Amino acid sequence: MDPNRLLSDIHYQFARSGGAGGQNVNKVATKAELRFDVRNSALLSDEERAILEEKLAGKLTTDGELVLTHQTERTQLANKEKVTKKFYRLIEKAFEKPKPRKATKPSKASVDERIAEKKRKGDVKANRKRIDYE
Question: 21-38: per-residue pLDDT in tens?
Answer without folding.
Answer: 667 667 788 899 999 998
